[in-house]
Amino acid sequence: MEIEAGERCSSCGQENAPIFKNPLPGEKQDELVTAAKNKASLYAELDKLLELYGRERGELIRVLYGAQKIFGYLPPEVQAYIAAKMDIPISEVNGVVTFYTLFVTEPRGRHTVRVCTGTACYVKGAADIMDKFKQELKLDGRETGEDGLFTLTSTRCIGACGMAPVLTVDEEVYGNLTAKDVITILEKYRSDPVAAGSGTAAAEKAEIQPEARANENHDQVH
């Protein structure tokens, strides 16, 4: 016999408790369980990081940097967790996060492209490079592409004016660029999402010949 909420027991006369059916399909439940387990594992990694640095107040920046490596960004709940574990006011943690451009509070792509827009880079075409990235990544006002692979930002001088215009992809430095080099750089990371190297310039990374680029610039000037 099927019992519905609101009916009364034939023996004691009390109203039956409502029966709540799970509104989620099995696959969705599995996704949520997996997500919860993944999140728990991330916090476990953060706990290890906190133990490594001894939860010393002076190690806050190191902890935040490590936490961002683990989570990909620093949402409010992660900041609050760190503040509680290190016994630091949340306002202090948030103040550090918002002060340093290194830290981000929203999800970003797997790779972060930072185009230098300092004076030396700007006068040599940094704006054209930015525009080309926006076009190729179809950003349309966003910083992160829909595929979640790239986030595009601008940055001030990174100390490589001799290779202007310059950009970085994660920790890799690319210099002596034009807008034509954008596709080559993007394809490298699209074909090898975990691409890594030793921080060489684009002349090596994107197979761009510096001598040829120098000659091009010389011809343009003259």
UniProtKB/TrEMBL annotation:
It comes from the Bacteria. It holds the Pfam family 2Fe-2S_thioredx. The keyword Cytoplasm does not apply. Keywords: Iron, Iron-sulfur, Metal-binding, Ubiquinone. Signal peptide: none annotated. One of its GO terms (molecular function) is metal ion binding. Residues 200-222 are annotated as: Disordered. InterPro entries: NADP_DH_HndA-like, NuoE_dom, NuoE_N, Thioredoxin-like_sf. Residues 204-222 have a biased composition (Basic and acidic residues). This is NADH dehydrogenase (Ubiquinone) 24 kDa subunit. It comes from Desulfofarcimen acetoxidans (strain ATCC 49208 / DSM 771 / KCTC 5769 / VKM B-1644 / 5575) (Desulfotomaculum acetoxidans). The lineage of its organism: Bacteria, Bacillati, Bacillota, Clostridia, Eubacteriales.
